[in-house]
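Message: Study each token:
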Amino acid sequence: MTVSPVAYPVRPADLPTFELRDALIDAAECRFDPELHTGPDAFTTEADADREVREAVAREVCADCPVRGECLELALRTLPEGGVWAGFTADEIAVLAAARLLDQVA
């Protein structure tokens, strides 16, 4: 089954959060291997080297994802504690979100 990219007439930033989430469920490349983007469960330790390799592969998957913009917008709104979202780690998302907030108040 082939999934077509989600085509929205508006920018991801203009979409309600539930539509962003639905777009990811339907078309995100990570839906085939979510653990690649989230890492192991909370009861499993992941060595730093393993995490770095996993995140690098996840970033490659994100690079070609048809809903990368929606994913980034959702991550900026929800500030995930971990994982790779739109090719960014949770720490990188936090920095981007803070910069965006500063731009909004400036």
Remarks:
- Residues 14-105 form one domain.
- The radius of gyration is 14 Å.
